[in-house]
Amino acid sequence: RQLEFSLRNALDRDEFSVVYQPVVDAITEQVVSFEALLRWTSTEHGFVSPAKFIPLAEDTRLIVPIGEWVLRTACREAMNWPDNVKIAVNVSGEQLLDPYFSETVVGALSATGLPPHRLEIEVTESIFVRDGTTAQGTLENLMGIGCGVALDDFGTGYSSLGYLRRMRFSTIKVDRSFVQGAAKDNPESLAIVRAVVAMADSLEMSTTAEGVETEAELAMIRKLGCKKIQGYFFGRPMSATDALALFSPDR
Ligand code: G
Ligand code: G
Ligand code: MN
Ligand code: NA
């Protein structure tokens, strides 16, 4: 298909960019990390939504080289930030199951000089469905060198609590559908967010509330005890230049 042809050339043509969305501490509101989010402006198709091209990149396995480029770009950018600020990078199952994935991560860290503890890999529950043993092995390997692993979109996938027993994630990211539901006093959403936070606390995992857009959502999420907050209320995904400017003293 036409889009696939364009995607095959996108890396060579330098059509990708990475934007960064801040994640703040729920209490201090200080930026603790950024999530790297890939963007594609195609010569032929203009701006293409990630919801459209990421699945295509996964199906064609183009996500493997593209993902390596994202890792390197994001780690390089993070070197410009204060050294207590982390970078979170989304990783698809196709990348994680690639036999060279650990080496790719180690390569990105050593090429940029980023300390492993400043990198957090974000995976979704779905990666444990296909080949849970391999996925777990690779993630444990990366945790062994000091990287964090966050469980993204928690609650929306093929939730199984089994892998929470086996693996120590650094962070559980509560999907924005629950966050926004809780702020609307939806009793089911409230109960679920409460339970996820309690579970993460006792497993010594941190929690990030995704998709916090309003003051009311912020207040509710604070009350529920989520540790970190991500969402348009504190910042949209922004260019590397704008992300860096958040740390300039004259702000
Ligand atoms: O940025 P946002 O809508 O627009 O992201 C849409 C989806 O694309 C999200 O689920 C996000 O996790 C995924 N995504 C964004 N950037 C990357 C990336 O660099 N790699 C992978 N594998 N997924 C990404
Ligand atoms: O699946 P993942 O969590 O990686 O996707 C992150 C996506 O969520 C990005 O596309 C990002 O733009 C989007 N996002 C981040 N904050 C908000 C928010 O406050 N509201 C909405 N609607 N989307 C958000
Ligand atoms: Mn994510
Ligand atoms: Na998410």
Describe the protein's architecture and organization.
The structure is a single chain. The chain has 251 residues and is of the alpha/beta class. The protein has a single domain (2-238), classed as TIM Barrel (Alpha-Beta Barrel), CATH 3.20.20.450. It contains 11 helices and 9 strands. It has helices spanning 2-10, 50-59, 63-78, 93-96, 101-112, 127-144, 162-166, 176-183, 187-202, 215-224, 240-245, and strands at residues 16-25, 31-42, 46-48, 86-90, 119-124, 148-154, 171-174, 206-209, 228-230. An 8-stranded mixed β-barrel has the order 1-2-4-5-6-7-8-9, surrounded by 5 helices. A hairpin with a 5-residue loop joins strand 1 (16-25) and strand 2. It starts with a helix and ends in a 6-residue tail after the last helix. It binds guanosine-5'-monophosphate (G) (2 copies), manganese (II) ion (MN) and sodium ion (NA).
Give keywords.
binds sodium ion; binds guanosine-5'-monophosphate; Diguanylate cyclase (GGDEF)-like protein/PAS domain S-box-containing protein; TIM Barrel; alpha/beta; 11 helices; 251 residues; binds manganese (II) ion; eight-stranded mixed β-barrel; globular
